[in-house]
């Protein structure tokens, strides 16, 4: 499979498949642009349960914010319960032929009127129901993309009893209220398939984020088959950008850019969550949500920290970053060799301080990761962009800012 500029798929010991650089890569270089095969909203199924009455309205096809909300075009089939909206007639007709087919429309309407799901279950279950409807719809409208979904990693993780219960509940609900049409080729609607689909979602979904008045939430989840091949590292060398509110026709694509230079043959990894999380939180999340114990270089170092070191770092490592000796920054260049170099005591205790100083966004409570803008004419850019808030920072001014 061709995955992206300068990347190849390899089996990585203990991790399954992963992506490795097939040539030296430069900081800021775009190594992958990927389109979703599936997108689904995180809104409650019943609009009356929207947590904030002021919550933004998104197009149910392209997931751009609809502004003003009065410009929204309701789906003519489910407008009676005011459930699904589009930003244009084009999005409405594209969705009607794909992600918002008559079966989806009917299924979501039935599910939204079912209190056992919408009142007595957590929001997470309703979002899983949306995902299952989207996945079974994919099997009907685009069997080849459904096969791609089926090829993604699906090892079970976390609380297996709770996951099995959720699968039984959702499967029986869909079987009763809205079974997928039996005409669909290439899949059998079984409890086993439902539970594998849920596991694939847990391990592979990327969140398209929203930031309203500093409060971050996920507006939609997407399955990006090539980006799903990136393994996790707590000190990633690449990070993900999306520009979902942009006017571009491919606004739901995600872009993976290199954070710094890496040589050929190095595994390229993302962090599956903000890099400021403490060692214990990271280990817990990775085990519960992704089914593995992380043994990356950063975890190896932090595993030896004392409890007081851990506590000091819980809730954000920025304090330590701010305390870092500025000389360290001057000593080091952006290249990966430098990130792993250093033999003084401070670097052994906290060799990744440099990473936080340089590549973590310094906007309050953002915790985004910064990567240089794409190089032009083979020259790396001095401007770093935050993948959460879009803040730009000039590398040359880094010392002055800190
Ligand atoms: C999004 S998938 C990544 C691609 C996956 N390795 C594959 O073969 O398709 C996430 C899964 O990859 C594995 N994985 C990712 N990062 C890992 C790491 N640092 N150590 C061990 N396993 C990892 C875990 O099984 C995790 O649930």
Automatic annotation (TrEMBL):
Residues 307-345 are annotated as: Disordered. SMART domains: SET (SM00317). It holds the Pfam family SET. Residues 308-336 have a biased composition (Acidic residues). Residues 5-273 form the SET domain. This is SET domain-containing protein. It comes from Linum tenue.
């Amino acid at each position: 499979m061709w995955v992206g500029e300068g990347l190849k798929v390899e089996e990585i010991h203990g991790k399954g498949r992963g992506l490795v650089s097939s040539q030296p890569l430069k900081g800021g270089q775009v190594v992958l642009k990927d389109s979703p095969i599936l997108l689904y909203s995180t809104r409650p199924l019943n609009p009356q349960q929207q947590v904030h009455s002021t919550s933004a309205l998104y197009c149910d096809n392209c997931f751009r914010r609809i502004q003003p909300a009065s410009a929204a075009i309701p789906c003519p089939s489910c407008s009676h319960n005011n459930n699904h909206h589009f930003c244009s007639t084009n999005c409405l007709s594209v969705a009607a032929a794909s992600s918002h087919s008559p079966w989806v429309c009917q299924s979501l309407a039935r599910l939204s009127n079912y209190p056992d799901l919408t009142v007595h279950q957590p929001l997470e279950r309703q979002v899983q129901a949306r995902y299952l409807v989207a996945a079974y719809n994919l099997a009907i409208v685009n069997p080849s993309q459904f096969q791609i979904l089926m090829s993604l990693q699906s090892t079970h993780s976390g609380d297996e009893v709770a996951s099995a219960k959720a699968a039984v509940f959702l499967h029986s609900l869909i079987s009763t209220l809205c079974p997928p049409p039996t005409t669909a080729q290439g899949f059998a609607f079984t409890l086993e398939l439902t539970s594998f689909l849920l596991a694939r979602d847990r391990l592979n979904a990327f969140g398209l984020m929203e930031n309203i008045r500093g409060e971050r939430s996920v507006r939609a989840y997407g399955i990006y088959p090539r980006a799903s091949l990136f393994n996790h590292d707590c000190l990633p060398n690449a990070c993900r950008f999306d520009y979902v509110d942009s006017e571009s026709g491919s606004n739901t694509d995600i872009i993976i850019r290199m954070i710094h230079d890496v040589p050929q043959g190095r595994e390229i990894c993302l962090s599956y969550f903000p890099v400021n999380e403490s060692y214990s939180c990271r280990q817990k999340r990775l085990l519960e949500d992704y089914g593995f114990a992380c043994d990356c270089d950063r975890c190896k170092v932090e595993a030896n920290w004392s409890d007081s070191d851990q506590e000091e770092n819980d809730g954000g490592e920025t304090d330590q970053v701010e305390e870092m000796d500025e000389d360290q920054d001057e000593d080091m260049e952006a290249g990966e060799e430098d990130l792993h170099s250093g033999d003084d005591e401070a670097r052994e205790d906290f060799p990744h301080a440099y990473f936080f100083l340089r590549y973590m966004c310094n906007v309050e409570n953002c915790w985004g990761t910064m990567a240089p803008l794409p190089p032009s004419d083979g020259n790396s850019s001095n401007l770093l962009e935050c993948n959460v808030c879009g803040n730009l920072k000039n590398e040359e001014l880094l010392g002055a800012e800190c």
